[in-house]
Amino acid sequence: MSKDALFQDVIRKRRSVRKFEPGRSVDRDVLQRIVDCGRWAPSGANVQCWDFVVVDDPAVRDRVMAVFLRQAQRLVDHAKGFPAVKKTYLANTIAIIFVLGDPRWKACFPQATSEEWDAEYRANNEAIFLCSLGAAVQNIQLGVAAEGLTSAWLSGGGEDETNRELAEVLGYPVWMKAYGTIPIGYPAADQNRRYRRPLGQLLHWNGYQPHQYRLHAQVDFYESTLRPFAMYRDEETMTNWPDRDEMLGDWKEAFTGDITNPDHMLEAEADFSKPRIIGQATKRRKT
Prior knowledge:
- It contains nine helices and four strands.
- By secondary structure, the chain is an alpha+beta fold.
- It folds into two domains: 183 residues, 3-Layer(aba) Sandwich (NADH Oxidase); 90 residues, no CATH class.
- A four-stranded antiparallel β-sheet has the order 1-2-4-3, with helices on both faces.
- Helix 2 packs antiparallel against helix 4.
- The longest helix has 29 residues.
């Protein structure tokens, strides 16, 4: 088997898993190799705007878990309709890796020389910063998979209240932020692949193809109806859902085939800063 094939296998083996075998451990040499994968991630201006905090002490882990139990309850209380997961499974992790973002390094990215362009470059620098951190998180996730372990990516550390609590537990400056929280463990059960869009939907050759554009109504339908199922069902393709006809309805072809927009019509920008409709999966959400 070629090296390229082996790398593809690692990518496809990566899972977001929240059920770990209890009572397991791993050598720090393994955790160092995983963190070293994050160290080799690309970053804007090569600033490497991250630090990695590895928690493998059970006492510290329990304090971290308490932070995330409170974070999960805030989701229940204040982000109704989102399929929040209780974080008690963190008790069975062998380690938790935090990817801290250090915002001081944004000063190294392109800076506007006039007020006219200041907003544009500030927004661009924020994108560079977040993309750099995302690359480090993904490298660590792949390093975890390569070691035969599994993980998840918790974004809750990026919330201000959760970050303040984590900073108190872990001792980093509160103006840094835990953009990536990666619990690591041995999977308690085999995890099938989660939903992935068909390649033909998202691969555009030599320009954006209008027939692959996803309509505003499709985004609304996914958010309000499909999201909790697409997040947690162990099926790579929706065509394998036994209730696909009922779940997908008129959007069956759009979510399972290569053509999402047979009319080839593109829409004007709309406000998607918050969910726009109530659906069967989000009836508890307050608008």
